[in-house]
Fold this sequence. Notes:
Elements: E1 3-8, H1 13-27, E2 31-35, E3 43-48, H2 51-58, E4 64-67, H3 74-81, E5 95-98, E6 107-114, E7 119-124, E8 132-136, E9 140-144
Amino acid sequence: MPFYAVRTTAGKEELVVELIAHEVKRQKLEIYSIMSIPGLKGYIIIEASNPLEVQRAIHGMRHAKVVLPQEIHPDEIFKFLEEEKKVEEFKRGDIVEILIGAFKGTRAKVLKIDAKKEELTVELLDTPVPLNITVPANGVRIIKREEE
C-alpha cells in the first residue's frame, strides 16, 4: 500500500492522528495506518489505498492542512524509524561516517567515548589538517570496526 504525507500544524501531529483515526472508523475509509514520527515536525504519514481516501479523512479538519500529492517511498519512512545507536556499540579506533552537521559524509576515527552524554570525540580523516570534533552517537554510523 502507498504512503502519503499530510502537512499539519507543528506540534499538533498527535492530535491530528487521533482525529483521523476517529474519522476513519466513522466513515469506514480505506486507511490502514497513521503515523506521527517524533523526528518529523509538521507532518504525519498515512498508509491508504489512494490519496482521495486521505483527502476524505482530513476534509474540514482544523490542524490538518494538505495531502502531499506524491507517494512516499517506504525507505524514506524507515530511516526515521531506525533504532537509535547506543554508545556501547562504538570502540576506540572504529572508523565512522558522520551523518549530520557541517561534516556530513566525512569519515572519522573514534578517539573518545562519553557514555553519559552519548557523544563521541572523533578525528576527521578526510581533512588536510587533523581536526577533533564531538558528535552525538546517533549522528554517525560505523564503516569499519577496530581490529581486536
